[in-house]
């Protein structure tokens, strides 16, 4: 079949696949990694594939319709997210109105969590895929190509000719990840790599993962709960190293790799095996990765990982208050002391001693949060002294424990999915705690960001880093130029900022 994989038009540089979809203050734009992997699987199975990332490429709905007509597209696989679902449904409706014979399947974490509710939003939407969807899309396309019964497609929720919504049940997770194509091959074929940017990473970059799943159960973390699960599955070391070599050989413009594993260092022996293989092959590509601070890594281990290419770790420190940490189930043993924060300080210092920078992630608005605990978080962030930091209000998404807990306690009083964003597409938490409003959560993050990035000691550190490390100079300048416009004016989060959320971009 001729199939279009579509990251639909919305706000410019809106990142659907990041853990908290939004337009970011740092200018970060995620690759459509899951969508591109599914496109690669479709190519493997003989389909004629096109891929459009509208927020990156500036595509309007009309431009997408014109592309569908020009390429005689028969099917569309459309990505979505909770904050963009109203817009994305309107895009689907516009595509089907222009081409009534079009087959449309919607994918993403929102539809994975609320499949029947999503299908009920519009008769133009015919089916959704739940959880990891590469093979569900493959089988759906095969069934559509020959007019087969959709009831055999595992992981599909669909509407039959009578209008009845049918769930085929959850598909088993993919265990042999080496079967999947290199997602970077799809990027190279369809995407313009300079469009994508992470505020903490060298630019241009590519993104792929070495594993799926996370054994931890943080209440807010959306991917393990709605997509990848809590069982670890690993690509083989040789397969990962082969993709590093592909990027170095075929994409010479790339300056770093972001490993988007939920948690990179889960198994230290496996991480060490991968590091040694990259060293053996002479890898020259730096890489960044997500990881936890309480993994007990020593400087010797971290030094080997750094030698293999590790440049920076993105770490969810979350809160400076242990009661808040316990409330989000971040502490595995529910310890009620300062050990978690002591481990965080040791981890940052050990990373820095080994030559690895740290990007710190801090969140406010979880259970047990108070105005005092938020101030503890800001103080904690400053004392940790990560290379870069982000502060964001909790964003609770369907399918997560955090969402269930907030609904149970009546902390979410807004039912409009569009309210999860400001009018500019920025994060806009809808959680109001007994003693903190959602506006106050957003305002605190604005203030914390200013306090962290405009501190004279931090500015002096960044100036020195830029003058002594040419590799980091471009990243520092690009990131700060984008961020600076938000440091002074903050976020647009008043009541008028969430108006007109149901307005589509079809005009």
Quick structural gist:
This protein has 507 residues and is of the alpha/beta class. It has 19 helices and 15 strands.
Description:
This protein is an alpha/beta fold. The protein folds into 2 domains: 2-167, Rossmann fold (3-Layer(aba) Sandwich), CATH 3.40.50.2300; 198-400, TIM Barrel (Alpha-Beta Barrel). The chain has 19 helices and 15 strands. It has helices at residues 33-44, 54-57, 61-70, 85-98, 109-113, 115-119, 134-146, 183-190, 222-228, 237-250, 268-280, 299-308, 322-327, 339-354, 371-384, 401-408, 438-453, 456-468, 470-489; strands spanning 2-7, 48-53, 75-79, 103-107, 127-129, 156-159, 165-167, 205-208, 211-212, 233-234, 256-259, 287-291, 310-318, 357-364, 388-393. The strands form 3 sheets. Strands 2-1-3-4-5-6-7 form a 7-stranded mixed sheet, sandwiched between helices. A 6-stranded parallel sheet has the order 8-11-12-13-14-15. Strands 9-10 form a two-stranded antiparallel sheet. Helix 1 (33-44) crosses helix 7 (134-146), helix 11 packs parallel to helix 12 and helix 15 (371-384) packs parallel to helix 17. Residues 493-507 have low confidence and may be disordered.
Top CATH class of the largest domain? Alpha Beta
Instruction: Output the radius of gyration.
Output: 22 Å
- Beta percentage is 5-15%
Low-confidence segments, given as residue ranges, are 493-507
Q: Judging from the principal axes of the Cα atoms, what is the shape?
A: globular
DSSP E strands, number: 15
Structural class: alpha/beta
The assigned CATH architecture of the largest domain is Alpha-Beta Barrel
- Counting structural domains, the number is 2
């Amino acid at each position: 079949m001729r199939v279009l994989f579509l990251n639909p038009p919305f706000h410019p540089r809106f990142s659907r696949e990041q853990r908290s979809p939004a337009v970011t203050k740092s200018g970060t734009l995620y690759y459509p990694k899951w969508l591109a992997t599914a496109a690669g699987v479709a190519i493997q199975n003989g389909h004629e594939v096109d891929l459009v990332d509208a927020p990156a490429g500036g595509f309007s709905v009309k431009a997408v319709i014109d592309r569908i007509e020009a390429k005689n597209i028969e099917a569309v696989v459309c990505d979505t997210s909770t904050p963009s679902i109203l817009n994305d449904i309107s895009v689907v409706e516009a595509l089907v109105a222009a081409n009534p014979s079009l087959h449309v399947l919607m994918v993403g974490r929102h539809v994975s969590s609320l499949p029947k509710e999503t299908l009920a939003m519009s008769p133009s939407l015919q089916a959704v895929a739940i959880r990891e969807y590469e093979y569900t899309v493959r089988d759906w396309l095969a069934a559509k190509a020959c007019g087969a019964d959709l009831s055999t497609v595992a992981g599909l929720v669909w509407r039959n000719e009578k209008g009845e919504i049918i769930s085929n049940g959850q598909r088993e997770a993919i265990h042999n990840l080496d079967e999947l194509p290199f997602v970077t091959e799809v990027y190279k074929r369809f995407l313009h790599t300079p469009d994508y940017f992470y505020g903490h990473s060298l630019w241009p970059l590519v993104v792929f993962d070495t594993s799926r799943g996370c054994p931890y159960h943080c209440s807010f973390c959306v991917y393990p709960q709605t997509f990848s699960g809590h069982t670890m599955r690993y690509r083989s070391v040789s397969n990962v190293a082969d993709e590093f070599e592909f990027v170095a050989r075929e994409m010479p413009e790339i300056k770093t790799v972001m490993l988007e594993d939920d948690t990179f260092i889960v198994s230290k022996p496996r991480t060490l095996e991968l590091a040694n293989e990259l060293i053996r092959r002479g890898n020259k590509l730096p890489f960044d990765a997500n990881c936890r601070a309480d993994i007990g890594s020593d400087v010797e281990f971290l030094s080997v990982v750094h030698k293999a290419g590790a440049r920076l770790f993105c770490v969810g420190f979350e809160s400076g208050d242990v009661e808040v940490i316990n409330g989000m189930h971040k502490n595995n043993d529910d310890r009620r002391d300062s050990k978690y924060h002591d481990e965080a300080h040791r981890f940052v210092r050990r990373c820095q001693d080994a030559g690895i920078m740290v990007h710190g992630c801090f969140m406010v608005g979880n259970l047990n949060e108070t105005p005092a605990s938020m101030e503890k978080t800001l103080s904690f962030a400053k004392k940790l002294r990560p290379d870069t930091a982000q502060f964001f209000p909790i964003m609770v998404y369907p399918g997560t424990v955090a969402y269930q807990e907030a609904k149970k306690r009546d902390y979410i009083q807004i039912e409009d999915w569009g309210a999860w964003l400001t009018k500019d597409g920025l994060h806009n938490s809808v959680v109001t705690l007994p003693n903190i409003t959602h506006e106050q959560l957003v305002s605190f993050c604005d203030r914390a960001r200013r306090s962290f990035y405009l501190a004279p000691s931090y500015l002096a550190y960044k100036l020195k880093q830029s003058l002594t490390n040419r590799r980091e100079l471009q990243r520092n300048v690009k990131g700060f130029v984008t961020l600076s416009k938000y440091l002074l004016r903050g976020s647009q989060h008043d009541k008028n900022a969430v108006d007109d959320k149901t307005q589509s971009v079809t005009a």
